[in-house]
Amino acid sequence: MTMLSERQQMSYIAAQAADARLNVELETEGMTLNIGPQHPATHGTLRIIARLDGEQVVWAEPSAGYMHRGYEKLTEVRTFPQVTALINRIDWLGSFANEVPFILAAEQLMNIEAPPRAQHIRTILFELSRIANVSLFLGDLGVQMGAVTPVFMAFRDREYVLNLIEGATGGRFHPNFDRIGGLKDDLPKGWLDETRQVMKKLRNFCDEIEDLLFGNEIFQSRTRGIGVIPADVARQYGLSGANLRASGVDWDLRRDQSLPLAYDKVDFRVWTHPDGDSWARCWIRLQEVREATKIVDQLIETLPPGPVMTKVPRIIKVPEGEAWVSTENPLGEMGYYVVSKGDLGPFRVKIRSASFNNISITPWVLKGVYVPDIITILASLYFILGDIDR
Amino acid sequence: MMSIALEIPYWGQSLLRVLGGIGAVLLPAGTIVYLFLFKMMSFMQSRLGPMEAGPFGSMQLLAEVGKWLQKEDIIPENADAKIYKLAPVIVLVSTFLLVVVVPFGPDALFTNFSAGVFYALAIGSVSVIGILVAGWSSANKYSLLGGLRAAGQLIAYELPMVLAVVGVVIQAGSMNLQQIVVAQNSGSIFGWDGVGFPFVLTQFVGFLIFMIAVQAELTQVPFDMPIAESELVSGYMTEYSGFRFLIFFIGEFATAGVFAFIASVLFLGGWGIPFSWFGWESLDAVDGWMNIVGPVIMLTKMLVLTGIIMWVRFSYPRFREDQLQRFAWKVLIPLSLANIAVTAILKVAI
Amino acid sequence: MPKVPGLVKGLGVTMGTLFRTVKNGADTVQYPHAKEAPPVRARGVIALREDNCTACMLCARSCPDWCIYIEGHKQLAPPRRAGGKPRKVNHLDRFDIDYALCMYCGICVEVCPFDALFWSPEYEYSEPRIADLLHDKDKLGEWMETVPEAPELEAGAEKKK
Question: Which residue, A259, A266, B145, C49, is most buried by CB atoms nearer than 10 A?
Answer without folding.
Answer: B145
